[in-house]
Design goal:
CATH class of the largest domain: Mainly Alpha
Strand content: 5-15%
Pathway: Carbohydrate degradation; pentose phosphate pathway; D-ribulose 5-phosphate from D-glucose 6-phosphate (oxidative stage): step 3/3
Radius of gyration: 26 Å
EC number: 1.1.1.44
Distance between the termini: 96 Å
Number of strands: 10
Enzyme class: oxidoreductase
CATH architecture of the largest domain: Orthogonal Bundle
Protein name: 6-phosphogluconate dehydrogenase, decarboxylating
Largest sheet: 8 strands, mixed
Keywords: Gluconate utilization, NADP, Oxidoreductase, Pentose shunt
Number of domains: 3
Structural class: alpha/beta
Length: 480
């Protein structure tokens, strides 16, 4: 009998293959299985050749090849396929064995599956994996949650394969997140913030291209400079690279990419769950809507022939305006992350998850799509005040937004006057202005609700929680 394996992996699409190769490269012996056996066989004969892999023809064979407690990671499409694999796995497991879901799973499904798998005597981990194909191979950001007892067995492997950050590159971008669906919820918020970051960058691009007429070569220089400061991040870096890529005819490829964006649903989940929690995650919602509007390409083309507006052209100092766009992007980015962490805080209360928000920021510091130097500041803010209500209240971020305010307002107002849509910039500013005000016009809104529906209201001159109703109709002034 061959030497038992340390880790099992089911699902050998590119992410699964790369993750398996990553685990093996850290000194672990890996058993792999794929529903289509030829995929597994090609992997064993190709990329895995000469390495510590065992190819398995059945799930039973995979489970038999693993050390106890067995650690089996599923890299399959989220949804019914996960339940099907769990059903196939459990007859071949023993108490204490661990099933891991590394897909982009809806957190509530992970909540349910954790309880079901634990009831059967096994352990379950819903683990968010971010970083794409390259991250899976070289070091992803990992967000493990689920059965708390699974973490001691998973920690050495997961922290070995994760991205590393810090002065000595020895801090793993992997730490236990919390019970049941917490890991997949944190991954969802990561993806929602990613939606926002990408939309904000696209709006900055649009402002510089449409109003200033910057060329792709000039945009390359702008993003190169931006990537050396507070905006230093993976998304700024790849945006810079995109502006340098030429098509076979020598023209810039980005200009030939159809302006129709796709989406896989995690941003929508975050937006929907924010509504359920009653927290205003407005930026990710606008980013989702922007993708939806982009998808209506043919309709927009028809509308462009009928609907009129100003022709974008900025008459001021180009260099100064580029700097103002940078400041607006940074301030809006701060708001986006502030909203994301507020949603995490609300979800933690709702689901009784003991989340550590500084640790969450460091999970995203390397390996993942939103990795950025900026996240160090978030970690510092929550380390200084673990009960911080909103990142905008942390001294560093409050100062940064205040310093960017004038530029931010100028960019948003210029966009409106020039007819360039910047929904994410604008909603970020609106959120900031709403959050910084002690008084909002909701007094009138609540009066309207009480007028037509007797929904009652509180009074500013009475104790909070004491409710009142007025017969507004009988007390109104006769309009005649």
């Amino acid at each position: 009998m061959s030497e038992p394996c340390d880790f099992g992996l089911i699902g050998l699409a590119v992410m699964g293959e790369n993750l398996a190769l990553n685990v093996e490269s850290r000194g672990y012996r890996v058993a792999v299985y794929n529903r289509t056996a030829s995929v597994m066989e090609e992997f064993i004969a190709g990329r895995a050749k000469g390495k510590a892999f065992v190819g398995c023809q059945t799930v039973a064979e995979l489970c038999k090849s693993l050390k106890r407690p067995r650690k089996v990671m599923m890299m399959v499409k989220a949804g019914p396929a996960v339940d099907a694999v769990i059903k196939e796995l459990t007859p071949h497991l023993e108490p204490g064995d661990i099933i891991i879901d590394g897909g982009n799973t809806y957190y509530a499904d992970t909540e349910r599956r954790t309880k079901e798998v634990e009831a059967a005597g096994f352990l379950y981990s819903g683990t968010g994996v971010s970083g794409g194909e390259e991250g899976a191979l070289k070091g992803p950001s990992l967000m493990p949650g689920g059965s708390t007892d699974s973490w001691p067995a998973l920690k050495p492997i997961f922290q070995a394969i994760s991205a590393k950050v810090g002065p000595n590159e020895d801090i793993p971008c992997c730490e236990w997140v919390g019970p049941r669906g917490a890991g997949h919820y944190v991954k969802m918020v990561h993806n929602g913030i990613e939606y926002g970051d990408m939309q904000l960058i696209c709006e900055a691009y649009s402002m510089m291209k449409e109003t200033l007429g910057l060329s792709n070569d000039e945009l390359y220089d702008v993003f190169t400079e931006w990537n050396t400061g507070v905006l230093d991040s993976y998304l700024i870096e790849i945006t810079r690279d995109i502006f340098s890529v030429k098509d076979t005819d020598g023209t810039h490829l980005v200009d030939k990419v159809l302006d129709r964006a796709g989406a896989k649903g995690t941003g929508k989940w975050m937006s929907q769950l924010a509504l359920d929690l009653g927290v205003p995650s407005t930026l990710v919602t606008e980013a989702v809507y922007a993708r939806g509007l982009s998808a209506r390409k043919e309709e927009r083309v028809r509308a462009s022939e009928l609907l009129k507006g100003p022709s974008p052209k900025y008459a001021g100092d180009k260099k100064a305006f580029v700097e103002q766009v940078r400041q607006a992007l940074y301030a809006s980015k701060i708001v986006s992350y502030a909203q994301g962490f507020v949603q995490l805080q609300a979800a933690a209360v709702e689901h009784d998850w003991p989340l550590n928000y500084g640790d969450c920021a460091m999970l995203w510091r390397g390996g993942c799509i939103i990795r950025a130097v900026f996240l160090d500041r978030i970690k510092e803010a929550f380390d200084a005040n673990p009960q911080l209500e909103n990142l905008l209240l942390a001294p560093y971020f409050a100062t940064a937004v205040d310093q960017a305010q004038s530029a931010w307002r100028h960019v948003v107002s210029t966009a409106a006057l020039q007819g360039v849509p910047v929904p994410a910039f604008a909603t970020a500013l609106a959120y900031y202005d709403g959050y910084r005000r002690a008084t909002l016009p909701a007094n009138l809104l609540q009066a309207q609700r009480d007028y037509f529906g007797a929904h009652t209201y509180e009074r500013t001159d009475k104790p909070r929680g004491e409710m009142f109703h007025t017969d507004w109709l009988s007390k109104r002034r006769d309009p005649r």
